[in-house]
Design brief:
Blueprint (H helix, E strand, L loop, with lengths): L1 H18 L20 H14 L1 E3 L2 E3 L6 E2 L1 H17 L12 H7 L6 E8 L4 H9 L2 H7 L6 E7 L2 E8 L1
Parallel strand pairs: 3-5
Antiparallel strand pairs: 1-2, 4-6, 5-6
């Protein structure tokens, strides 16, 4: 009986040890997350999945629209606005110096014909913020606006800004 218990204990110990994950097998950190704390590829994919499938924004059925492309100037404007809101502790499309999104885009050199902006606070992931915007009729309509061809998103803490544009 004692011999059976020893063999059983060895088998259990071997099984537990062999199931332990080795640290050299841990996945590498996501290389798509820049210092602004966003994964632009994930954000673009989530937005374009909505756009190319169509969705319902509030009570409005929005048809499929073409995907948008990522634009670094729009990301720059979005990041600056998120940082400004976080630093100065406010939440508005109009910055405290009185500038609206169009004025901020012009100031960074983005020559636009149309723009739209979504802002959010309190979300901790790309999936959560896109879901929040999808569930808000006005924000959702911005995402689904067929006139928009480019997008950028910026984050500072849990302040998010999404800027759409068309040149």
């Amino acid at each position: 009986m004692k011999k059976s218990l020893v063999i059983f204990a060895i088998l259990i110990g071997t099984t537990i040890f062999s199931c332990k994950k080795k640290t050299d097998e841990d996945p590498a950190p996501n290389q798509n997350v820049p210092t602004t704390g966003i994964d632009k590829n994930k954000l673009l994919q989530l937005v374009n999945n909505l756009r190319t499938a169509g969705c319902t924004c509030g009570s409005t059925n929005m048809p499929k629209v073409a995907p948008v492309a990522w634009n670094d100037l729009l990301e720059q404007a979005a990041t600056a606005h998120s940082q400004d809101m976080a630093t100065k502790n406010y939440f508005s499309h109009t910055s405290q110096d009185g500038k609206n999104p169009g004025q901020r885009l012009t100031a960074i050199g983005y020559t636009w014909t149309t723009w739209a902006e979504n802002i959010a606070n309190g979300y901790t992931s790309e999936e959560a913020v896109i879901e929040g915007w999808k569930n808000s009729e006005g924000h959702c309509k911005n995402i689904m606006n067929a006139s928009m061809t480019e997008m950028g998103v910026g984050r500072s803490g849990n302040y998010w800004t999404q800027v759409f544009g068309k040149r």
